[in-house]
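The methods section describes the discrete structure representation at length, but only in general terms. Each protein is reduced to its one-letter sequence and a matching series of backbone shape codes. I believe one specimen quoted in the main text would settle the matter. An entry of this sort, consisting of the sequence and the corresponding backbone structure tokens, reads as follows.
***
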Amino acid sequence: TVGKTVEWGLQKRNKVKGPGRNVKSMRVGSWNVGTMTGRGRELVETMARRKVEILCVQETKWKGNSSRHLGEGYKIVYSGKSTKMNGVGVIVCKDLADKIVRVVRHSYRSINVQVAFESGLWNIISVYAPQVGRPQEEKDSFLEDLEEVVSRIPGNEMVVIGGDFNAHLGEKCPDYPDEHGQRGLGRRKALETLEALELFAVNTGFTKNYEQKVTYRSGGHDTQIDYILVRRIDRAKVQDVKVLPYEAVTRQHRLLVMDITISKERRIKQIKHPARTKLWKLRENKEMSHILEEAATRVCGKTRGGRLRENEEWWWDMEVQETLKEKKKALKDGTGEFQKYKRLKKVGKRSVSRAKERAWKEWYEKLETKERTK
């Protein structure tokens, strides 16, 4: 039986990283299932056992555009052709089924399901690229449609693309360090699109063993043609990506999963104030206040006190005072007295200069007399 999911299916992987930080993560997968006919129940059981909350599926081979319930609350939204060929879809768990706010079916090769989280809108896009042998015009059209879909999504919304791209990104691509993690598998093709869309293939960015990289096995040939993409700026949110090779729903394609951070909630530390003496209560007890003041005086002593010094420049005189007084008055009178203010400002500067000159002259004269000894 399918295990009961908890709130949003996310609490099973809640982790605490660092002091006071609560990290919520979610598992998103991508899988070319070959056909959805007769496999709905198996996929639900696999998602529950592997704790996959969202699964992008390709080659559904269902006609038309619709949605269905697969059991245990799991729901699939799909887009197909008029014939039982190709088709893509997105399966969500029970607790996310009610969080779907919008579905955009671009074609039978691309579908965008918007899911509302507390941290914002997430665009889950499932794609299925033309197979090897299809006309080049069809492949170019697919890439152009994908570029248009991603470019229309606002920058503040999350983008997760899972799909069968029927293309190789290669083991190492030094020319594309921002799109390729240098830990891929196979030969390199079609990285120009990732560069144009500022996307990153997350399953090329983690060191894994060979079996956890192979997404497609047929006729003794192993390759990596299924990818999960996110925007470069969201690369740090990805915790882990790997292939789960031992699922028997399909023979050739393998389940690819990604653990990604949804939100980081920093706990507010409780600031405790130190205990304080209630000195303000001494105002009510004059006698106790007087006793404490006398004790403090005996221990610390008192200053000598004295006359307060006037805060005045040593060269200040009545001429400077009167000039600056008139200047301030002209400034307060408004724009009509602005010319007068400018004139008095110059006069004030000259008055200050003359006052300083007189003060220094008197000082030097005192140095030549007996007053210098005082």
User: Anything to note?
Assistant: DSSP finds seven helices and 16 strands in the chain.
